[in-house]
TrEMBL record:
GO terms for biological process: trehalose biosynthetic process. It is found in: Cytoplasm. It is an enzyme of class 3 (hydrolase). GO terms for molecular function: 4-alpha-D-(1->4)-alpha-D-glucanotrehalose trehalohydrolase activity. Keywords: Carbohydrate metabolism, Cytoplasm, Glycosidase, Hydrolase. Its main location: cytoplasm. One of its GO terms (cellular component) is cytoplasm. The record marks 379 as: Transition state stabilizer. Belongs to the glycosyl hydrolase 13 family. This is Malto-oligosyltrehalose trehalohydrolase. The active site is at residues 248, 285.
């Protein structure tokens, strides 16, 4: 392949006195410009390795904007040509978030092989289920082979054990061929503890949060730091054809500038969407309970398109499981209230935070599709001591009642891989840092954290053990068993029903009515009703019916409504 060079090599290092690049065993000096960018016009071919040396340090460092790290996060970067991949999705016009159903998966444990190519072999399962958007946990380069992905340090390089940049492109291309959009989880709020060399180049960091160093988004030299984030986000959407990004823990992005980074990113992504001719979606994870994040910029908001809504999860979890430990304690009896308005903590007291928290959602102007609702996700499972799923605590029938609430709500539904068949495999916290001291620190810290909550050391899985990864990998053979297949068929039917009856996906919160009584809920969805009994006794739900569209077994019609046994639901046409 002929050598290629657009601008040669370049790297931002405003406070360094010397920068060199090592290519093919030779080292070359770079020249500095007035903004702190160092450049050279030497050429290199795709596939050539290179690394930078700063000041008089003799240790080569990977490129902070690396596109490819085949030798891991401590090794050299490799030239990568985005134009060489042969895409087949020229006709893809994207997948809008409103009305869609999302499926969250982790490439390393979605299949036993843990690669993009092996994940492709399971995409037809998602099509049969009725999924619209596949949300992929972080895939950027992190130290070690196995991990959740939230300890990434090179944001633009795809984790090599998964299949590298070409492997991810094959995965996205295969999704698009099946009508599936792809949302990628990205982490800009911190870097992992191993291989984070950004501070060797420049003032990328300012302070820290509970996960690691925070980015310098508003201090001196912060323009280029913000540029790294925005360029990285646009690169996933443009060069990898991704349809959306899930932004991890945006409340940890400290930015006091007049235009917050997220607002700037929103404007850039909307501009790119217009140019590409397909919708691009930004979904936040936020602990702020502030709908301004998902309010359009022209209405004075930040302009993100949606956010995860943990309040809905917490209210569902408590209603289904009875667990009121920790932050769940505030959500006892809160399901109906939370369903009506997305946030339970809306300027109300939070006993977990020991202060008031959040602000109300204006249900007249804020559509429900801007909030993702879910029974389970990677955090709410994986951050439990043993990584146990909801169906390890409650019966599949009871969990299906929760699924019916999610799919018949005005919110955007999301499910976590394996949930659709009540997978028996847990999803536990795991990592594989090669540094023995770091590995032991993570292992000890994890056990100490849960010991404070009453768990014995032997009960907490070793996060560094390959067995923990294996135990967390989906067992697809479960789908062959009747008890799991029946759960899958109910999930599939609920999603199909949502698509067949648009009123079930109607996002207008001001038209959403929730009635409740002892143990039961009744959701009004246009001419349809969802009746659910989560109580211990049969419940008479007052809703005259003209027909039952989908129901658990044992439902009986009465002159005034329905008689539901415990742990049952029914979607009906109201008289």
């Amino acid at each position: 392949m002929a050598p290629v060079s657009v601008e040669g090599f370049r790297v931002w290092a405003p406070e360094r006195s010397r920068v060199r690049v090592e290519v093919g065993g030779a080292r070359h000096e770079l020249a500095r410009d007035s903004r702190g960018w160092w450049r050279t016009d030497i050429t290199a071919a795709p596939g050539d390795d290179y690394a930078f040396l700063v000041d008089e340090d003799e240790k080569p460092l990977p490129d902070p904007r690396s596109r490819w790290q085949p030798s891991g996060v401590h090794g050299p970067s490799r030239r990568y040509d985005h134009g060489a991949f042969q895409w087949t999705d020229a006709g893809w016009r994207g997948r809008a978030l409103p009305g869609s159903v999302l499926y969250e998966l982790h490439i390393g444990t979605f299949t036993p092989e843990g690669t993009f190519d092996s994940a492709i072999t399971r995409l037809d399962h998602l099509v049969a289920l009725g999924i619209d958007l596949v949300e992929v946990l972080p895939i950027n380069a992190f130290d070690g082979v196995a991990g959740w992905g939230y300890d990434g340090v090179l944001w633009g390089a795809v984790h090599e054990p998964y299949g590298g940049p070409d492997g991810f492109k094959r995965f996205v291309d295969a999704c698009h061929a099946r009508g599936l959009g792809v949302v990628l989880d990205v982490v800009y709020n911190h870097l992992g503890p191993s291989g984070a060399y950004l501070d060797r180049f420049g003032p990328y960091f300012k302070g820290s949060n509970i996960w690691g160093p925070s980015l310098n988004l508003d201090g001196p030299h912060s323009d280029e730091v913000r540029g790294l984030v925005i360029d990285n986000a646009l690169g996933w959407l443009r060069d990898f054809h991704v349809d959306g990004l899930r932004l991890d823990a945006v409340h940890a992005l400290v930015d006091a500038r007049a235009t917050h980074l997220l607002e700037e990113l929103s404007a850039e992504v909307d501009a790119l969407a217009a140019g590409l001719g397909r919708p691009l979606t930004l979904i936040a994870e936020s602990d702020l309970n502030n709908a301004r994040l998902v309010t359009p910029r022209e209405a004075g908001g930040t302009g993100l398109h949606a956010q995860w809504c943990d309040d809905i999860h917490h209210a569902l979890h408590v209603a289904l499981s009875g667990d009121v430990s920790g932050y769940y304690g505030d959500f006892d009896g809160a399901l109906a209230t939370t369903l009506r308005s997305a946030f339970f903590h809306a300027g109300t007291w939070s006993s977990f935070r020991k202060r008031t928290h959040g602000r109300p959602v204006d249900v007249r102007t804020t559509p429900g599709h801007r909030f993702l609702a879910y029974l389970q996700n990677h955090d709410q499972i994986g951050n439990r001591a043993t990584g146990d799923r909801l169906t390890a605590t409650v019966s599949p029938a009871r969990a299906l009642c929760g699924a019916a609430i999610v799919f018949c709500s005005p919110y955007t539904p999301m499910l976590f891989m394996g949930e659709e068949w009540a997978a028996a495999t847990p999803w536990q916290f795991f990592a594989s840092f090669p540094d023995p001291e770091l590995a032991e620190a993570v292992r000890t810290g994890r056990r100490r954290e849960f010991a404070e909550h009453g768990w014995g050391e032997s009960e907490v899985p070793d996060p560094m053990s390959p067995d923990t990864v294996a135990n967390s990998t989906l067992d697809w053979s479960e789908m062959e068993r009747p008890e799991h297949a029946s759960v899958f068929e109910t999930y599939r039917a609920l999603i199909a029903l949502r698509r067949a009856h648009p009123e079930l996906a109607d996002p207008r919160l001001d038209r959403f009515v929730v009635e409740s009584g002892p143990g039961w809920l009744l959701l009004h969805r246009g001419s349809l009703r969802l009746a659910v009994n989560l109580g211990a006794e049969p419940a008479s739900v007052p809703s005259p019916t003209r027909g039952v569209l989908l129901a658990s077994t044992g439902i009986a019609a009465t002159p005034d409504g329905l008689l539901l046994p415990p742990d049952t639901f029914a979607v009906i046409v109201a008289a």
